[in-house]
Design goal:
Layout: E1 17-22, H1 27-34, E2 39-47, H2 56-61, E3 67-74, H3 81-89, E4 99-100, E5 103-104, E6 111-114, H4 117-132, E7 143-146, E8 150-152, H5 160-163, H6 165-183
Parallel strand pairs: 6-7
Antiparallel strand pairs: 1-3, 1-6, 2-3, 2-8, 4-5
């Protein structure tokens, strides 16, 4: 006969895993993930390029190779990587390789940066499922790339939606409108 064993909080093992997503302006990529249980932290930054410790101005000029991204530390026992991928797809236009919404250029391209081979596998499966779903008329062009060094963005970019709600709302309106059209009630608020 089996018995349920109730564990004390002190007996629970908390794991920490890292997910890195690029989907246009990092200001718009924090809030959708920020409210989920199991998310320890979200940092806005730059990754995928060749310049060490780039500044916002350097990345915007387009010669560092970096893209704006968010690094999410999460507990996979509470919030799975697969669930993070679902949230990610509902925040981006995966058919636009040259930016997202009003943000144009290579530094705004959509990328899933995997940190483990298992993440790579899950991202590829997720991308294929989205492509086969018929949700989009165009092919899914979001790339899946190995994580490279991640450089934290300047402090004023961190938690921007909390620091400057009016400017955040204005900068995310095109994204929000488009996502509501595509995902309807299923989309998380941009």
């Amino acid at each position: 006969m089996r018995r349920k064993i109730r564990k004390k909080e002190s007996d629970v093992i908390h794991l920490k895993e890292t997910a890195i997503f690029a989907g246009g302006c990092f200001w718009c990529m924090v809030k959708p993930f920020d409210t989920y249980p199991g998310v320890y932290s979200i940092v806005s930054g730059y990754t995928g390029g060749h310049t060490e410790y780039p500044t916002y101005q350097q990345v915007c000029q387009g010669d560092t190779g970096h893209t704006e991204a968010v690094k999410i530390e999460f507990d996979p026992n509470i919030l799975s990587y697969e669930e993070l991928l679902t949230i990610y797809w509902q925040q981006t236009d995966p058919t636009d390789a040259f930016g997202q919404f009003q943000d144009r250029g290579d530094s705004y391209r959509p990328v899933i940066f995997y940190t483990t081979e298992e993440q790579k596998k899950q991202a590829e499966i997720s991308k294929k499922q989205l492509d086969l779903s018929g949700k989009y008329d165009k092919p899914i062009v979001t790339t899946i790339e190995a994580a490279k060094p991640f450089f934290m963005a300047e402090d004023y970019h961190q938690d921007f939606y909390k620091k400057d709600p009016a400017r955040y709302k204005a900068s995310s309106q095109l994204r929000k409108n488009w996502l509501e059209e595509v995902w309807g009630e299923d989309s998380d608020e941009a």
